[in-house]
């Protein structure tokens, strides 16, 4: 299982801040597509991804047991 942490509007879209994805190994981009297909989470291309608390590129591999966080841009004032 891959643990996925969601923040801000992503959390609001599905009503959870954490989901588990049954997968052994895929890229961050493949995980984004899977979440888009299965949960209707569109717009993940514009958010930062972190794997095990380190920022990750779309081609970073994610394995069983990893934690992936999708972090939308933050604005303040």
Automatic annotation (TrEMBL):
UniProt cross-references to SUPFAM superfamilies, sorted A to Z: MoaD/ThiS (SSF54285)
Family: Belongs to the MoaD family.
InterPro entries, per the entry: Beta-grasp_dom_sf, MOCS2A, Mopterin_synth/thiamin_S_b, ThiS/MoaD-like
Role according to the record: Involved in sulfur transfer in the conversion of molybdopterin precursor Z to molybdopterin.
Annotated GO MF terms: nucleotide binding
GO process terms (BP): Mo-molybdopterin cofactor biosynthetic process
Superkingdom field: Bacteria
A Pfam family assignment: ThiS
Quaternary organization: Heterotetramer of 2 MoaD subunits and 2 MoaE subunits. Forms a stable heterotetrameric complex of 2 MoaD and 2 MoeB during adenylation of MoaD by MoeB. During catalysis MoaD shuttles between the two heterotetrameric complexes.
Gene: moaD
Record protein name field: Molybdopterin synthase sulfur carrier subunit
Source organism: Peribacillus saganii
UniProt KW keywords: Molybdenum cofactor biosynthesis, Nucleotide-binding
GO cellular component entries: molybdopterin adenylyltransferase complex
Pathway: Cofactor biosynthesis; molybdopterin biosynthesis
Database matches in Gene3D superfamilies: 3.10.20.30
């Amino acid at each position: 299982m891959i643990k996925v942490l969601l923040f801000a509007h992503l959390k609001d879209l599905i009503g959870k801040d954490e989901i588990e994805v049954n997968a052994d190994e895929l890229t961050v981009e493949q995980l984004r597509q899977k979440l888009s297909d299965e949960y209707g989470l569109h717009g993940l291309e514009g958010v930062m991804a972190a794997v095990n608390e380190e920022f990750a590129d779309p081609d970073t591999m994610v394995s069983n047991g990893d934690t992936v966080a999708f972090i939308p841009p933050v604005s303040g004032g």
